[in-house]
Amino acid sequence: MEEKSQTAKLLRSSKAEIMKVWEARVREALPAAQHESRASLRDSIPDFLEDLLIALETNLSTAKPEIIRFAHKHGSERANTSSYSIEDALTEYNILRRVIFAIIEVQGPIPPRDRDIILEAINYGLAKAGAEYAKLQLSQLAEKNEKLSELHADLKKSEETLKLAVTSSELGIWNLDLSTNLVTWNGTAAELFGFDPATTSLPFEAVESRIYPEDVEKNQNAFKHILSGNDVHFQDFRIVHPSGRVRWLSGSGKLVRDDAGRPARIIGTDRDITESKEVEAALRESEANFKQMANSVPQLVWAATPAGQVDYYNDKMTEYEGAEIVDGEWRWTTLSIQRTKRGP
Q1: How far apart are CA 34 and CA 237, in angstroms?
Q2: Weakest mean pLDDT among 161-165, 187-191, 312-316
Q3: Mind listing the domains of the chain with CATH numbers?
Q4: Please, which residues bridge with residue 185 across strands?
Q5: Based on C-alpha coordinates, what's the Rg of the chain?
């Protein structure tokens, strides 16, 4: 009984020194501990030493509930410290064991029974703390997996929405890998250039061969412009389908660099604007026909906006006795026709 009480007495009188040495060695051994405050790092250890004193003063079996309580507390605290690994938490126990023996044995050998109690208490606490740590880590992992599943579901939903939007807009999306000169694209882009929609990739040369001959140089200059900077470049160009039909496309492209800042790929979009171009051509033709007709009649022909801004006049208007636009415009309220003075 005296040996047991003597070890407990030495442990109680050495608690402050044990705490100081343990803290110093833990901070030296564990990088994670270097970022913890003193209170946070030492919070549970005094409780453990008190539980160990109970084990020495009574017997190990009656002290186990106290050790379990401490082990759960210590495991929970370390598990919720993001910088701690389970190995770090268990290392703290092993350092504590070495410090306790080193300090107490300076004053004399520890009786075998007390040594066994200390080792059993630390090993039991180590096992229970490790189990608690692992349980909390698994719980946190399950929570993260649940959040990842939710994010995955949201991402899938967003992808489906984007896919629907791209399909509805009939937008061709493509990617040119500058290291392989290989173009990968969606089915819409392939179809726009007259390829099978199932064709997911082609050499850039095969794609370029479909560009209208007069637009090849313009298209090459566009790619040079994209490679020279980071802005998005827009351009309208023509392509020739295998059937011989010419289609107009409106394209855009942007350079993407790798982590080292080197050009890695060009991404872009294309859409068919043939109908718009045909409408524009029809309007230009209609306007040209109107002007030809207006210039062929002997009457003065001119037109103005509702605000009075003259936006068209035929040749006869300027030929009429030297009439001209004053200050570069005619208006309903300021219309001024200058006449050339005639002789007698």
Answers
A1: 63
A2: 161-165
A3: 2-145 (1.10.490), 170-277 (3.30.450.20), 297-344 (no CATH)
A4: 174
A5: 43
Contacts of 338 (CB under 8 A, 6+ apart): 322, 323, 324, 326
Burial 71-91 (b: 16+ CB within 10 A, else e): bbbbbbbbbebeebebebbbb
Tokens coding 230: 């980071």
- Quote the CA–CA distance of 143 and 106 in Å, as a whole number: 48
In angstroms, the Cα distances linking 12 to 15, 23, 50, 56 are 5, 17, 8, 11
Collect all residues with Cβ–Cβ distance below 8 Å to 127 and sequence separation of at least 6.
71
Distance, in Å, from the CA atom of 42 to the CA atom of 20, rounded to the nearest integer, reads: 9
Nearest to residue 84, comparing CAs of 26, 150, 3, 128? 26
Rounded-to-integer distance, Cα 342 and Cα 155, Å: 83
Report d(CA 119, CA 100) in Å as an integer.
10
pLDDT at 34: 75
| H or E element, residue 27 | helix 15-29
pLDDT for res 145 = 81
Task: Extract the tokens encoding 299.
Answer: 């009457």
Mean pLDDT check: name the lowest of 77-81, 104-108, 209-213: 77-81
Identify residue 299 by its one-letter amino acid code.
Q
pLDDT at site 259: 87
DSSP 184: E
Query: CA of 200: how far to CAs of 79, 164, 167, 185, in Å?
Result: 48, 18, 16, 6
Tell me the per-residue pLDDT of 165-201, one tens digit each, with 9 for 90 and over.
555 557 888 999 999 999 999 888 999 999 998 988 9
